[in-house]
From TrEMBL, chain A:
<feature type="domain" description="ABC transporter">
    <location>
        <begin position="5"/>
        <end position="210"/>
    </location>
</feature>
<keyword id="KW-0813">Transport</keyword>
<dbReference type="InterPro" id="IPR017871">
    <property type="entry name" value="ABC_transporter-like_CS"/>
</dbReference>
<dbReference type="InterPro" id="IPR027417">
    <property type="entry name" value="P-loop_NTPase"/>
</dbReference>
<keyword id="KW-0472">Membrane</keyword>
<protein>
    <submittedName>
        <fullName>Cytochrome c biogenesis heme-transporting ATPase CcmA</fullName>
    </submittedName>
</protein>
<dbReference type="Pfam" id="PF00005">
    <property type="entry name" value="ABC_tran"/>
</dbReference>
<keyword id="KW-0067">ATP-binding</keyword>
<keyword id="KW-0547">Nucleotide-binding</keyword>
UniProtKB/TrEMBL annotation, chain B:
<feature type="transmembrane region" description="Helical">
    <location>
        <begin position="134"/>
        <end position="163"/>
    </location>
</feature>
<comment type="similarity">
    <text>Belongs to the CcmB/CycW/HelB family.</text>
</comment>
<feature type="transmembrane region" description="Helical">
    <location>
        <begin position="170"/>
        <end position="191"/>
    </location>
</feature>
<feature type="transmembrane region" description="Helical">
    <location>
        <begin position="32"/>
        <end position="50"/>
    </location>
</feature>
<protein>
    <recommendedName>
        <fullName>Heme exporter protein B</fullName>
    </recommendedName>
</protein>
<dbReference type="InterPro" id="IPR026031">
    <property type="entry name" value="Cyt_c_CcmB_bac"/>
</dbReference>
<comment type="function">
    <text>Required for the export of heme to the periplasm for the biogenesis of c-type cytochromes.</text>
</comment>
<dbReference type="Pfam" id="PF03379">
    <property type="entry name" value="CcmB"/>
</dbReference>
<keyword id="KW-0812">Transmembrane</keyword>
Length: 210, 232
């Protein structure tokens, strides 16, 4: 059984101006889709629309051929969305943050798996430090640890490279392509140049409003 | 990897949310002290401001205690979803493959445990200060425990509606306070009845009924309000 997120005729309007119109988009196994466009071109809005976070102004969204409105539980069970804010609670340490996300997704998860995921992201030794005392990049790395901890088919990542250092960027890029190679799909926005190691679909929003 | 059709484990998700919110709140103790401190301060001012005559104070004590407790519960309401909204975890909560109404109920339960329950437990002590007639202390605590849970549920709807606003706290009070009037009436009514040696059962039953109704309806309203505020 495979999966597919299909968008047809999406549109987004802000202050009487179309950010994009009649946008068609399909994501399936092995796809890496990069949403491009200058600041304010509606990249984040598009990702939020696709994640079912914003009400559709036009067009339709289908998950495996079923309207997203009805397929929402199944869709959310396969989705990992990382937004602008990393979603990391400053008062909790990395392990506690990750454990909550795992429980939220119906996984019990093991302490050892969480330690391992944090170590991969270079956070060994910071597991028990409250996130408030970590840097922005380290907080984002905690959020990125969810990618390895919770296997989800569809990743929707809004500027995942923000505040990440060069080595971290390379490792994350590897993770994206490996995820696609393993049959997953990635939808992301970034201003960072991706080194294509597979089929990279580009969606350019800079002229999509005309 | 195979596509999943659903996710199990609402129980663990609820427990984890309860534990998380409790941990977060207990690590920021400063905020926890606010409602009880406000409650205690206001009540200690009344004998000084009105009259130290026990008979006079006893007559108005039920109302004073209830009004002060009601206002104290409003103090921490604004923070219920705000910090989650700011750090992005509210967005993740909305995207979790679990019923949102159940998850927000866990958050409100933690809020009650850390504000409503302490207020109910300390109220008898403050009742002593206002020379509340003996025999009504138990009813005071019970009515506040029941009533503050309803207040928390109602308040959470307002907090969810105003979470996206920069200065939502004034609007929040305006939205929520009118809805809390029935709770106030029956709550102070129960204590009044107890103080005068009357039957407290009807007023307490009404408080229980209000809580039952709020438990049934408020989680859906809170979830809906959060969706409106976050997804605009």
């Amino acid at each position: 059984m495979t999966f597919r997120l299909e968008a047809r005729g999406l549109a987004c309007e802000r202050d009487d101006r179309w950010l994009f119109r009649d946008l068609d988009l399909g994501v399936g196994p092995g796809d890496v889709v990069r949403i491009e466009g200058p600041n304010g071109s509606g990249k984040t809005s598009l990702l939020k629309l696709l994640a079912g976070q914003l009400p559709l102004q036009a067009g339709e969204l289908h998950w495996n051929g079923v309207s997203l409105r009805r397929a929402r539980p199944a869709f959310l069970a396969n989705l990992l969305y990382l937004g602008h804010a990393p979603g990391i609670k400053p008062a909790l340490n990395a392990l506690e943050n990750l454990a909550w996300y795992q429980a939220l997704h119906g996984e019990s998860g093991s302490h050892r798996a969480r330690l391992a995921a944090l170590e991969v992201l270079g956070l060994a030794g910071f597991e028990e430090v409250p996130a408030a005392q970590l840097s922005a990049g380290q907080q984002r790395r905690i959020a990125l640890a969810r990618l390895t901890l919770s296997p989800r088919l569809l990743w929707i990542l809004d500027e995942p490279f923000t505040a990440i250092d060069r080595q971290g960027v390379a490792a994350l890029e590897d993770a994206l392509w490996n995820h696609a190679a393993a049959g997953g799909a990635v939808l992301l926005t970034t201003h960072h140049e991706l080194h294509a190691r597979g089929a990279l679909t580009r969606v350019d929003l800079s002229k999509a409003g005309d | 990897m195979q596509p999943r059709t659903s996710v199990a484990g609402l129980g663990p998700a609820l427990l984890a949310t309860l534990r998380r919110d409790l941990t977060v709140a207990l690590r920021r103790r400063g905020d926890l002290v606010n409602p009880p401190a406000f409650f205690a301060l206001v009540i200690t001012l009344f004998p000084l401001g009105i009259s130290p005559v026990p008979e006079q104070l006893a007559a108005i004590a039920p109302g004073l205690l209830w009004v002060a407790a009601l206002l104290a519960t409003q103090l921490s309401l604004d923070a219920l979803f705000r910090s989650d909204h700011e750090d992005g975890s509210l967005e993740q909560l909305l995207l979790a493959p679990q019923p949102l109404a159940a998850l927000v109920l866990a958050k409100v339960a933690v809020h009650w445990l850390l504000t409503g329950l302490p207020l109910a437990l300390m109220a008898p002590l403050l009742g002593l200060l206002l020379s509340l007639p003996s025999g009504s202390y138990g009813v005071l605590a019970a009515s506040l425990a029941l009533g503050s849970a309803t207040l928390g549920l109602i308040g959470a709807i307002g907090a969810a509606l105003t979470v996206g606003l920069a200065r939502g706290s004034v609007l929040l009070s305006l939205l929520v306070l009118p809805l809390t009037i029935p709770v106030l009436i029956f709550g102070s009514g129960a204590v009044q009845a107890a103080a005068m040696g009357g039957d407290v059962a009807p007023a307490l039953a009404m408080l229980g009924a209000q809580l039952a109704l709020a438990l049934m309806l408020a989680p859906w309203a809170i979830a809906g309000a959060l969706r409106i505020s976050i997804h605009g």
